[in-house]
Design goal:
The chain is built from two helices and eight strands, in the order H-H-E-E-E-E-E-E-E-E. By secondary structure, the protein is an alpha/beta fold.
């Protein structure tokens, strides 16, 4: 039974592909190869226009201005860790750090360490001018679990200059 079904399908497929190749030959003869290239360009232009006008839902937050209050993180030696409350619909948080142990303009490395101790993100920046905080923009996509997190600052040689613990809570 299955063998007969497979033979029937193969025969039908043969008729279908033969019809397609005959149609393709007639199209090429009638319009030439240039029309196929023009059709491909038109399809590509349509795809580019669609992508230009459709907003990806996960990026809608970037299309409008937002007012955000930074969460001020204190170094580990200066008291209790701050709580970072992540609300639904908010795509990012701002973390404000006082960097007192680096000269202004000095190259720094920051590391975001997850509750289990895994390094989630690493980036480079410069120490802010004296009296100004360092603002770290933290996308919520980088934070997938609640618990105790650490933002660590290191100098150019890799030595830790400050550790900023904070806890993440999802609301």
């Amino acid at each position: 039974m299955l063998l007969g079904l497979a033979e029937g399908f193969a025969t039908a497929l043969g008729f279908f592909t033969a019809g397609l190749s005959a149609a393709a030959t007639g199209f090429s003869a009638a319009f030439g190869a240039a029309s196929g290239l023009a059709l491909a360009c038109l399809a590509l232009a349509g795809l580019a226009a669609w992508q230009a006008f459709v907003v990806i839902p996960s990026l809608r937050w970037a299309a409008a201005p937002q007012a955000l209050s930074p969460v001020v993180l204190r170094a580990a030696a200066r008291g209790e860790e701050q709580a970072l409350a992540i609300r639904r619909g908010q795509a990012l948080s701002l973390l404000s750090l006082d960097v007192n142990s680096a000269d202004p303009g000095a190259p720094l490395t920051y590391e975001l360490i997850a509750p289990g101790g895994a390094l989630r993100h690493k980036g480079t920046t410069q120490a802010p001018p004296a009296g100004s905080p360092l603002i770290v923009v933290l996308p919520h996509a980088a934070i997938r679990e609640p618990g105790g997190w650490v933002l660590r600052l290191c100098n150019q040689q890799g030595a830790e200059i400050a550790r900023y613990p904070f806890s993440v809570q999802f609301n």
